[in-house]
Amino acid sequence: MPIAADLLAIMPFPDIDPIAFSIGPLAIHWYGLAYVAGILLGWAYARRLAANESLWPGNVSPISRTQLDDFIVWAALGVVLGGRLGYIFFYDLPAVLRSPIRALEIWNGGMSFHGGLTGTTIAMILFARRNAIPIWSLFDIVATVVPFGLFFGRIANFINGELWGRLTDVPWAVVFPTGGPFARHPSQLYEAGLEGIVLLLVLAALVYGMRALKSPGFITGVFVCGYALSRIFVEFFREPDAQLGYLLGTNWLTMGMVLSSPMILLGLWAMLRARRQAALQL
């Protein structure tokens, strides 16, 4: 049986131009559209959640639609600035120190989810304090809608032929233009399915089926823990960043695993805290 490294294309890569369309000299990339789609769909869903007062503690929504409209700018800045800075510090710092201009070259590596999460968390804390909004409820709203952005972002990664998976001989393997003449796991699609679709459905079931938003912080904990478990699982199929490689042994520890592991404990703590607080109010 031939080893995976000897296999050529099992399934041809759908050669989609990373540029969706152009307006004169301005090129609109699928990656940028993915961010826009994720933010707009998340915003629309968040407005629907905020308007349904029966979902919230005391049947009173913690945030108005007008406040959500204002927050979208804060969230966008947190995602973009945090995501880019996170990538630089977690994955590309030596190269940026050698050539600082590289920090502005988003096409060289792109964004980090963990950095974007940190940036958005800071934006949420500042916005909540400024507008007297319960911080855990704001966390819950954002956590519920983040899977939209994760789904579209991973689809854009697939279209761009980046962040591809490890060598494999599974029937659905793909040969990516930038990954050599070898069949690889389409790990971007695995992440889109787990971090996007599955996590979105789980959170929606908890929100509408179990009224989990009435326990502020519980949805946040489920999201953080669910994302971490999904990311760690997919890391076993995803090729690590070339400049980092495996951090421990062969085909083992990756930076994605290292950054995601503490999130499991953080998510469990948030869920336990939310349940404890809800019990005290009974």
TrEMBL record:
Q: What is its EC number?
A: 2.5.1.145
A single Gene Ontology MF term assigned here is:
phosphatidylglycerol-prolipoprotein diacylglyceryl transferase activity
Which first-to-last residue range defines the signal peptide? Answer: none
Q: Which residues cross the membrane?
A: 28-46, 71-91, 111-128, 135-156, 192-210, 217-234, 246-272
What enzyme class is recorded for this protein? transferase
Part of which pathway?
A: Protein modification; lipoprotein biosynthesis (diacylglyceryl transfer)
Identify the InterPro entries for this entry. Lgt
Cite the entry's keywords alphabetically: Cell membrane, Membrane, Transferase, Transmembrane, Transmembrane helix
Which residues hold a 1,2-diacyl-sn-glycero-3-phospho-(1'-sn-glycerol)? R154
Protein topology in the membrane: Multi-pass membrane protein
Q: Which Pfam families match?
A: LGT (PF01790)
Subcellular localization is given as:
Cell membrane
In terms of superkingdom, the source organism counts as: Bacteria
Where does this chain mainly localize? membrane
State the HAMAP family in the record.
Answer: Lgt
Family recorded in the similarity comment: Belongs to the Lgt family.
Please give the function described in this protein's UniProt entry.
Catalyzes the transfer of the diacylglyceryl group from phosphatidylglycerol to the sulfhydryl group of the N-terminal cysteine of a prolipoprotein, the first step in the formation of mature lipoproteins.
Q: What is this protein called?
A: Phosphatidylglycerol--prolipoprotein diacylglyceryl transferase
